[in-house]
Amino acid sequence: MRTVDIIRKKRDGGELSREELAHVIEGYTKKQVPDYQVSSFLMAVYFAGLSETEVADLTDVIMRSGVVVDLSAIPGVKVDKHSTGGVGDKTSLIVAPVVAAAGVHVPMISGRGLGHTGGTLDKLESIPGFNTRLTTEQFREGLSSVGAALVGQTDELAPADRALYALRDATGTVESIPLIAASIMSKKMVEGIDALVLDVKTGSGAFMKKQTDARRLAQAMVSIGRRMNKRVLALITDMDQPLGNAVGNSLEVMEAINTLRNQGPPDLTELSVELSARMLMLADSAKSYDQAREQCTTLLENGQALEKFKQLVANQGGDAGVVDAFEKLPTSSAEYTVASPRGGFVSRIQAEDIGTAAMLLGAGRETVDSKIDHGVGIVLERKVGERVESGDTLCTLYYNSDEHLEEATQMVEDSFRIAAAAPEAKPLIYEIIQ
Amino acid sequence: MRTVDIIRKKRDGGELSREELAHVIEGYTKKQVPDYQVSSFLMAVYFAGLSETEVADLTDVIMRSGVVVDLSAIPGVKVDKHSTGGVGDKTSLIVAPVVAAAGVHVPMISGRGLGHTGGTLDKLESIPGFNTRLTTEQFREGLSSVGAALVGQTDELAPADRALYALRDATGTVESIPLIAASIMSKKMVEGIDALVLDVKTGSGAFMKKQTDARRLAQAMVSIGRRMNKRVLALITDMDQPLGNAVGNSLEVMEAINTLRNQGPPDLTELSVELSARMLMLADSAKSYDQAREQCTTLLENGQALEKFKQLVANQGGDAGVVDAFEKLPTSSAEYTVASPRGGFVSRIQAEDIGTAAMLLGAGRETVDSKIDHGVGIVLERKVGERVESGDTLCTLYYNSDEHLEEATQMVEDSFRIAAAAPEAKPLIYEIIQ
What residue ranges define each of the domains in chain B, with the CATH number in brackets? Predict the structure, then answer.
């Protein structure tokens, strides 16, 4: 089997066998196939695409490039949730304790933020002592005792995915739906889960700006799940404005805690309940959709979800006392208020710019090596559709260094649009793909 | 300027500036841009194409990656001929002395054979003593004194082309018309020529199997020439059957000499006269097309072209005595005759298979490192359209080792088709692109 023949076959629109895909991917991770052939292959995939069978095979090959976590000793359906990334998306911090409080195990391997998007690990690490680097044994133990464990990817999980992503990033082959789908799904499938709810974001703050692309990605991932005998469902949800009000790590932890106390922003609460309910249904833990939603809402109202969050934090070495004492979380030393230049209705809050502005303040990473400041960020006082008077606060920037403050402020101001009339209401959840 | 942004721009159908193309190509030859980015770029070019401006810029960048021969000290228009490669194509050996005998300088840098196609250098090197490795000074001297010099590419000429070709060969990006056009033209433009006649082959033995592809390649190369202020004209000619009768190095030299004696096969003579006449016209050395053709025919008839060939050979250290004593050329020790299985008309001689069979006998190279046997090859006794009786010789295989004889014989037999009726006559020259 010659690598160049596989590249040419894909280039000319042929369908590759599992063996041919494995030849390229395994060969690459074993340094038997040179990177210049792999990058050419990836660009051919960018243009020629992959069939459903090919994407599933590719996912499987990437998944098996490292260790696959075995959770068979833990009884019941293990279910995870994955979001394609956005601004202010702290649903993982809410969904994991809600679903675990309902008695369903949630093994969750999360990532770090990059560019305008935040990462669950960074948010969790703003809680003093919280350890996201568990051994597999600790991960299993957390699942058994608490019902949920939230950790970061390790070098031994799907190493081919990291190698491929680094190459794609340097060779203009990131924006390929089958490659994105295989990357996400390979990382999720190593968790030893039985079911997965995908939250595919669309809009200005999402990776998929267009709903049609979000749909294609969701369909590709659901198809992979089906072919790998996993229960997978995808929601396509709005990321045109930030989710909730807080953007920035400790600010988002506070908002997540408030939401677990049933005092969160309506959009964040709604999406968290919807995602949790879908997870319970995939786990056969609810009789109906309505019952699943009701159960999740009850767990927010009766304090059981918050209690589960405290257990989760404590189990991973974190200070669960933050729940009742936000001052224990990292904070900023200064704040800057952005006021509305006129009265009217908020008609747009460009999510990517809010995310980038938060990154500039130190909440996010410009490159993977950037250091972040857990205490800084942006809190929106108004969301799209709300009425404002001239001079009302639109949002507040929390910062520790004013190095990029002006740039961030300008970006935040530009991200808001104030119109005379109320904008047409947009749904939070666009579609369900299953 | 980030390489990945250039790749993405091309991938998304953008038009690259000369600076962007130079960033990739010069960066690659200086080892500042890694091969995995260049191969991804090349695959993006394969799919997204290049505009006429981009192809000309790319050619110029590749050409300037090394030394450009300066022939300005030699008066008059310097004109070359280049063929895209075929089976039995020995026109360079005829055209160079004919045009030089007409008083026009022919600086010719040629290549070696690979796969089923032959190379001018290999043919010339079957003449004892012939040296194709001249210094630039010797090359200029040969042009001044004889009017023509035929040499091989050196490391200092267009090094980026060799580096790119090796990468394309390994990454499935050879079959890209703009990349082929830029590769050919960059190698020709370093010769210091003013004008160029291109012989773009089409048919079973050609790189471009389809006439539409040959036309696109011809148009791309003519456009490059125009943008580089060179006079360039392309003929699209038939390579569905081998050109002339002889395939194999010393066999082709003999046939070329016979043609220079005006005793060559009709198709080879016709194409040689046509190419030579076109060269004279581009050099403003003839008043009309008819006069140019007449002049070339006269030079074959009166022995002046053959005399020029002898001068050319002697000037490059070769034994010009081969012209009158073919036994001085390498020969084979054995021959095998393929007879027609029945009477009828030759309706097809699959050129690629004849070329591959000759390669198997040792006349060509399977890889660039293969050694070749100058004495072996195949001589066709019948060409397409000719009548045969059952048992008549179709062709003869000349060989020194019977290692691949059976395979070669089978291939040659299969390459001939004998039909009851005469096939429709096909033109030798399909189109002129200028």
Answer: 3-49 (1.20.970.10), 79-323 (3.40.1030.10), 328-419 (3.90.1170.30)
